[in-house]
Amino acid sequence: MARRRLGFWRRFAVSVVKPTMAVWTRRTWRGMEHIPASGGVIIVPNHLSHADPLVSAHFIYDSGRWPQYLGKASVFRVPVVGRILHWCRQIPVERGTVDAARSLETLERAIRDGGAVVIYPEGTTTRQPDLWPMRGKTGAARLALTTGAPVIPVVMWGPQKIFDPRTKKVSLRPGIPVTVAAGPPVDLSRWAGAAPSRGVLDEMTDAIMLRLRDMLAEIRDETPPPLWSAQAKRGEERS
């Protein structure tokens, strides 16, 4: 990544975040070669802690790409903060409004402009008690279908030791071990050119989440549970 292309605010963000994370964490990075060096890409991490964005941003930046995260559009309207987020090329997204379609267009444009867009398919930190992935939402699948961009799975284990969402405890001790691994693109070729029906998007999302579950099992060296039970799935669909 050419430093001269970052501009002042992105260089400033790097100068603050990267040294902090270098002290705060002891890192094991795997699979950086799976993140394309250029071109539009959709990066889909698991989400187990509020510390995830710091850890994943460090990993993606070290891989040679500038990560573009989604943020609530209301935050981008906050004086100063919103401008900095804009200058750092983060992406405002309207949620639950008629502007959601416009947000999708913004994401598509970022991908077609060659951006590395980061989408947490779970939408929020997992509610599974052992921090395994839960059922995903369809935004990443829809974006993959409309753009044809590769979907790169990224799994993390360790950010929960920085902030554990179950206990709400923060650890400031240095050298917290974190592991981040990227894998080859999720094979979504069977749905290429399909209409974005709910069934198609659900199937694509399931493929993404199953890959994340299996990759996380590998770095945790544990046997994963079923991704979700049929009962839980039906309950989510009714909610």
Automatic annotation (TrEMBL):
Which Pfam families does the UniProt record give?
Acyltransferase (PF01553)
Name listed for the protein in its UniProt record: Lysophospholipid acyltransferase family protein
- Single GO molecular function: acyltransferase activity
Q: Which residues form a coiled coil?
A: none
**What keywords would UniProt list here?**
Acyltransferase, Transferase
Q: Which residues does the UniProt record annotate as the domain Phospholipid/glycerol acyltransferase?
A: 41-159
